[in-house]
Design a protein that fits this description.
With 467 residues, this protein is α+β, with helices and mostly antiparallel strands. The protein is built from 13 helices and 18 strands. The strands form four sheets. The chain has a seven-stranded antiparallel beta sheet, with helices on one face. β2 and β3 form a beta hairpin. The relative contact order is 0.10.
Length: 467
């Protein structure tokens, strides 16, 4: 066995690796935008897997050398149990290892290791190191395995030597852009099973739907169970984010109705393609009751975490009771796979006015089994309606007419393309919009408290409407 191979096996299987990194991760992890356990103390870490993508050099049997090394870790983070929160989450960490950090990598610093197999070395976020992220692209270009990691590729060939850069944006995952041609989404908090952000775009590509960029490569883990770790897709560099477009229209006093109408048509086309590509089961008897009960459970959990929500609980619950009453009257609609977290920030408009939908992961706070389950298409519609309201509330003064026109135009466009008007099911639409607003309250309270008044305004309106 070569010295490099021996070093790789030694480090990957070292029981001292995670304990030596633990003090650094205790400080670094809770500060990351994508860390879902904010507000709860970290009590322990446990190592799921460790893979050396680029072996850490050694000299004289100790960790030393010029580096850099590149470590891929799957780590379970243990935290106290709270309502609607798991006690253990699994995170994907990509770590660079060097004796010292160059100045350009200083913002990526995690810390200096004092003991264990990396004693004396500096650990940092590898996604900020172009040398290491270029190596990651090479792995994606060549299907195969590396330890517990498996790299897959579609029919398209990805060119070599594309310059990498990390996207510095707020999101629950991390993204790299290669050569302004491809974007790699790296899932930070990972769950057993295929991530919908790989599964659904692949299904849409097979169906010939051009509204969603088709995956060209991906990587996964096989231990201890199947986990989707990252997806490489074409980067629509000339497209503009729907959220920013809406805000600019508001600031300029422009009507956004035509764009909203076209976006409604795009949403309907994606729903139609998903219904053709994947099963559309008829909900079993009692499914509507369970759906409404899930909304009630989420409401109660959110009210437990956000006291401002408590006075509105009776009025909000009435919206969910109306869905239960629909089921008792025998009214149901076939469910299907949907986007699951649709809003203006998940859309891109090209220079030619063509709308694309991205980020099919669903709401990261919900279990993967729930995100992969069939849902009424009206759930996506409700998410977009909330997004128009969010945009209007973000502008001063609040432009209620702008939001109303966008909501109406979006539903008009959807009805034109789908042949079904989502406003024809007012109880279901209201319930899903309420459920989304409750989710927003919990999210903003945890991550962006300054934004909490935005969903709370919707909560006030929706509770009054159901009363």
């Amino acid at each position: 066995m070569s010295e490099a191979a021996s070093a790789q096996v030694t480090l990957a299987n070292s029981t001292a690796l995670l304990p030596s990194l633990g003090p650094l991760l205790h400080e670094w992890l809770p500060r990351q935008r994508w860390f879902a356990g904010k507000g709860r103390p970290v009590t322990a870490f446990s190592l799921v897997s460790a893979t050396e993508m680029l072996p850490v050099e050694r000299s004289g049997g100790t960790a030393a050398g010029a580096g850099p090394g590149f470590l891929h870790l799957l780590v379970r983070v243990h935290q106290p149990t709270m309502p609607a929160q798991p006690p253990i989450d699994c995170y994907q960490l990509l770590l660079g290892v060097r004796p010292t950090l160059p100045t350009r990598l200083a913002p990526a610093l995690i810390g200096h290791v004092k003991d264990g197999p990396l004693a004396g070395l500096t650990v940092y976020d590898a996604l900020h190191d172009p040398r290491l992220t270029a190596l990651l692209l090479e792995r994606l270009r060549t299907p195969g395995g590396l330890g517990v990691l498996r790299f897959g590729r579609g029919a398209a060939t990805v060119p070599a030597g594309l310059a990498p850069r990390v996207l510095d944006t707020e999101q629950s995952n991390s993204s790299l852009v290669y050569g302004n041609a491809y974007i790699l989404k790296i899932f930070r908090r990972v769950f057993p099973g295929t991530n919908p952000d790989l599964e659904l775009p692949l299904a849409l590509a097979r169906e010939g739907c051009g509204r969603v960029p088709a995956p060209v490569a991906w990587f996964e883990s096989t231990v201890p169970e199947h986990l989707t770790l990252g997806v490489l897709q074409p980067f629509l560099h000339d497209a503009q984010d729907g959220w920013q477009l809406a805000l600019r229209a508001l600031a300029a006093g422009h009507d956004f109705g035509p764009e909203a109408r076209a976006l409604g048509r795009a949403t309907a086309e994606v729903h139609t393609a998903l219904a053709a590509a994947l099963p559309t089961p008829v909900p079993p008897l009692g499914e509507t009751d369970e759906q409404a009960a899930g909304m009630v459970r989420r409401l109660e959990a959110a009210a437990h975490a956000v006291p401002e929500l408590v006075p509105y609980v009776p009025g909000l619950r009435a919206a969910f009771d109306a869905v239960t009453a629909l089921g008792h009257r025998g009214r149901s609609r076939a469910a299907q796979r949907v986007h699951g977290d649709l809003h203006l920030g998940q859309t891109l408009r090209g220079a030619d006015g063509f709308w694309s939908l991205i980020d099919f992961e669903g709401e990261p706070a919900r279990p993967l089994t729930e995100r992969r389950g069939p849902q009424p298409p009206v759930r996506d519609v409700a998410g977009m309606l909330r997004s128009f309201d969010y945009a209007a509330r973000s502008h001063r003064p609040w432009n209620a007419d702008w939001a109303a026109r966008c909501r109406s135009a979006y539903c008009d466009g959807y009805a034109e393309a789908a042949g079904i008007d989502p406003r024809g099911e007012p109880e279901l639409l209201r319930a899903h919009e309420t459920d989304k607003a409750v989710y927003e309250v919990l999210y903003e309270a945890r991550h962006r408290p300054d934004w909490l008044p935005v969903p709370m305004a919707a909560i006030h309106r929706l509770a009054a409407a159901t009363d």
